[in-house]
Every structure is written in structure tokens, then in C-alpha cells.
Amino acid sequence: MSKVMELSGDLALYGQLYGMTAVVLPAGTVANSAVSGSAGINASKMEHLHQVTFAQPYATVAEDAQEAVHVVRGTSGTIKSVHIGYAGATDIAGNATVDVDVYVDGATIFSGVPQLTSAASQYDNIAGTIGTASVLQTEVIEVVVNATVGTGALPDGLFCVIRLDEGYT
What domain range is 49 assigned to? Predict the structure, then answer.
């Protein structure tokens, strides 16, 4: 029968600590700062944050487009956020709108597609409302732009930034 030894207060140990079968640490006791930069932790034991950016040229008015921007290589992942905006000098005006949808294998991820209207300003980041955030290995992520000029003006320098966590394979 094993014997439990309790110590009160701090303990300084000079040398190495060995466990004959295992050293069990309570969850949350090893913080990032406690892990050496040269620890050599395998990539398979970490999640990877990707920031995928779709952008149209600064001097080009927003236009309809559909482009594959990422293929999920990890076993699975989660889309954390999607933000759209424009960085060019031409503002969106009047009743012009730009909808920017994100598809995973041909289906939207949104319950509310983000839209640029005349209420947006240069460099604003408009968030989409994500309905389906999970992705699986080999799924293709696409950005789909629907620009409608109406009686207004479309912006230039359209961008879309997708942040996703992905497990390693």
C-alpha cells in the first residue's frame, strides 16, 4: 500500500524529480511560461491557429468572386471568426451592398452573412454571425463575394479575414 506524504509550504528541489510510474500534475498547473522554448513539443500535441486572408486589389472596385482560400489539413478544426471590410480609398455609398459569404464544401457557415453598406467606413471590420463553425480534414473553405452597385458606389480594396483553429495531423 502506498503512503501519501504531505508537505505544507514551499519546496525547493535541486536536481531532477523522478516518478517510478508517472508524475501526475493537476490540470492547469503547467502554464505556457513554464514550458521551455526549446522543449521540442511535437506539433501533433498542439492546435494551430490560421488566419486566412482573401483580398481584392486596393485600386479595384469590389466585384463578384468565388475563390478557394484554404483546405483543412488537420483532423478537424473550428472557425473562430470572420471579418470583412475595405481598405481602398473609394468608400461604399448610396444603396450599394457587398455580401461576403464563406462556404465549407459548398455550404455557407453563416446564420447571418456579413454585409458592407454605406454605414461602413474604410478599415471597419464587420463580423459575420457563424452558424456552423466546425470543419473536417480535406474540407475546402471558399470566399464568395456578391457586389451590388445599385444607385451607389462600391468600395475598393475589399478584404475578408477568416481565423480558424486546426488540429494537427
Answer: 43-167
Q: What is the total count of domains within the chain?
A: 1
d(CA 81, CA 79) in angstroms, rounded, equals 6
Tens-place pLDDT, residues 51-92: 999 999 989 999 999 999 999 998 899 999 999 999 999 999
**Of 132, 133, 115, 137, residue with least CA distance to 124:** 115
Share of the chain above pLDDT 90, in %: 66
Indicate yes or no: pTM above 0.70.
Answer: yes
Q: Of 48, 71, 52, 70, which is closest to residue 159 (Cα–Cα)? A: 52
Residue 37 lies in a domain: no
**DSSP state, residue 114:** -
